Amino acid sequence: MIDYFLSGWSFFFRWPVANAQAYRPLGVFIGPLLQTFVFLVFAFLSVAVLGSQMQHWAPFAGFVGLSMLTGFFHEDGLADTADSLGVSKFNSQESLDKIHSTFKDPRLGTFGVSALVLLWGFRILIVSHAQLSLALFAVVCLLSRATSLGLGLLYSSWLKTSHSARSSHVMQTVSASRALLILLGVVMAGVVGCLVVETFFPTVTTFPLRLTVDDFGQLLLCIAMMLASSCLLLWGLVKRTEALNGDLLGALVCISEVFLTIYILKVF
Fold first, then answer.
1. Residue 214 has pLDDT above 90, yes or no
2. CA contacts within 13 A on the Cβ side of 74
3. Alpha-carbon 126 to chain mean position
4. N or C: which end of the chain has fewer CB within 10 A?
5. Could you report the per-residue pLDDT of 164-177, keeping only the tens digit for each?
6. What is the DSSP string of the chain?
7. What is the distance in angstroms between the CA of the first residue and the CA of the last residue of the chain?
8. Residues near 27 by beta carbon (within 8 Å), at least 6 away in sequence
């Protein structure tokens, strides 16, 4: 079990370094829970440092801390995906190769920078004005990452090749049924954990939009809307690139986060 957690940690986090004795690809699917835990740790630390007057910035601190420990893992995927959209495609092998080379280019282009500015601007705007509870932000963090992995499993079964060796190795070597069961367990455990946060730490979650047991029906509606939107988006990206790679899944994490946040604000 320790190897599974360490494998998931080493895949997503750059610090602190954690190496499993035997790498377990299925451990990657525990990643959403690990990331949500790190998000909450940084959020609670910021509450202790900033005090009650500034506690509404705790979710933003959680996103900053999580991104730093992952080495901006998902944000890098968003930037690379956005830059790839700036490459014109004329249904030729040459243009397709240029799109794929964009994913490997460490430099940021205009599209990539714009995408990052919009993402972090959205996070700042939501934290400063929407005032969702910390538990709801944690649910958004959990579900956006679980959605990316789940849809990655679905689409990888349709694609025999991938231009990202690491992501294709994970998706194509694990048992899809076992991975989906782990994801389901992770989501259930994470949502219960967020309810605990909402119940026992009310001083951090005294915002208008809170998560309660009675809200599960509305939350399921938001999840269904996010899944539908994310599925269509990934289908379009995969069709355009004719491949599935880690950058596309990283971009899907960030965009699913935006989708789910907007749907929660509309439905709750």
1. no
2. 26
3. 17
4. N
5. 434 456 777 788 88
6. -HHHHHHHHHHH--SS----SS--GGGGGGHHHHHHHHHHHHHHHHHHHH-GGGGGGHHHHHHHHHHHHTTSHHHHHHHHHHHHHTS---SSHHHHHHHHHHHH--S--HHHHHHHHHHHHHHHHIIIII-B-HHHHHHHHHHHHHHHHHHHHHHHTT-S--S-HHHHHHHHHS-HHHHHHHHHHHHHHHHHHHHHHHHH-GGG--SSB---GGGHHHHHHHHHHHHHHHHHHHHHHHHHHTS--HHHHHHHHHHHHHHHHHHHHHH-
7. 37
8. 3, 4, 5, 6, 7, 8, 9, 11, 20
At 141, list the tokens.
């963090």
pLDDT one-digit tens code per residue, 100-114: 899 988 899 999 999
